[in-house]
Amino acid sequence: MPIGLIWSEHFAAKLGIFANLPGVIALATASQKGGVGKTTVCINLGHALARRGWNTLLIDTDPQGGIGLSLSRNTRKKRGFYDFLMAGGNVRPYILPTRLPEFSILPCGVPDAFLKAGRVDDAPQKIQDLLRQCDILGYDVVLMDTAAGLTGITEVAVRTADWVLIPQQAEPLAVRSVPLLLETLARFRSEGSQVRVAGILLTMLLASHEASLKVARELREMLPASFLFNQAIPRDPLFLEASAHGLPLGLLRKNPPATALLFDQLAADIEERTGLNTRKDQLQSHASLLD
Ligand SMILES: Nc1ncnc2c1ncn2[C@@H]1O[C@H](COP(=O)(O)OP(=O)(O)O)[C@@H](O)[C@H]1O
Ligand SMILES: [Mg+2]
User: Fold this and answer.
1) Helices 174-190 and 210-222 sit at what angle, rounded to 10 degrees?
2) What is the mean pLDDT of residues 6-10?
């Protein structure tokens, strides 16, 4: 791309000109309950998207810092999302690189001061500014891992996001909680939020248990087919092993286990649903396999 064009696109994005420029896509998780696999999905999906070439930033908006706890105990002491919400300014110094150049993490930081000050009022502007900075920094995707429930900062993150991904544990209560969550999201949209549902992702599915499969079946019968992702994440002890090593599943073995590949499929599905796959150099010219 000619250098002048890069300059003008970035400058235009900064000024909010050409609103239809392909900017960063912000995807937040949402669920009423904790322990449904939100953080696990974010880490593994973030890794899969990065492996597929997207510049991906994973933001931990959960004050309990699930991402830090899963990946590295050290991130606890690092400044991050909540420090940015307090102070504003340049977010770049808070972003941690990973061993994959395309994958970066904004840890939750130290939430105490923010939570004590209770300054949720200007959080929407701060998160919008954060996403604008991510755009200028060249990120393609921002994944926001959230705390359970749709209140406080989680509510702000979801309202500000372009897309919401709903991890849903394959357990009987799901059949009641999913419609409630969807109604809340519909209310956010009626109040001006542009957030769209990327899909519902069944997690912790026990294929050997009829009760777990029944939930999956009931949800598929209850909702339009497009609401549920084709992939379902099985209950797999490998997640505990990966988390003990501070790794996404894909980095646990030289040859990634089958469950890790599900996140690759999920990433491909999300690329299609969000239009990411129509971007950039995705439409490559077809060279023949043999010359
Ligand atoms: N598919 C799964 N199979 C087995 N264990 C899982 C799975 N997903 C998550 N876990 C484990 O369950 C616990 C809660 O998951 P987590 O991702 O932290 O949930 P949340 O972020 O929704 O609170 C963690 O110990 C995690 O390692
Ligand atoms: Mg979590």
Assistant:
1) 30
2) 50
DSSP at 148: S
Q: Quick one: which atom of ligand 1 is closest to the CA of 41?
A: 17
Dist CA 135 CA 15 (whole Å): 12
CA of 199 to the centre of ligand 2 (A): 18
Q: Residue 72 and residue 38: Cα distance in Å, rounded?
A: 17
Q: Is 146 in the pocket of ligand 1 (CB under 6 A)?
A: no
Q: What is the pLDDT of residues 134-157, one digit of tens each?
A: 999 999 999 999 999 999 999 999
Q: Tokens 């110094």 map to which residue?
A: 93
3 state DSSP class of 237: coil
Mapped onto helix, strand or coil, the DSSP state of residue 266 is helix
Complete domains list, the chain, with CATH: 22-167+236-265 (3.40.50.300)
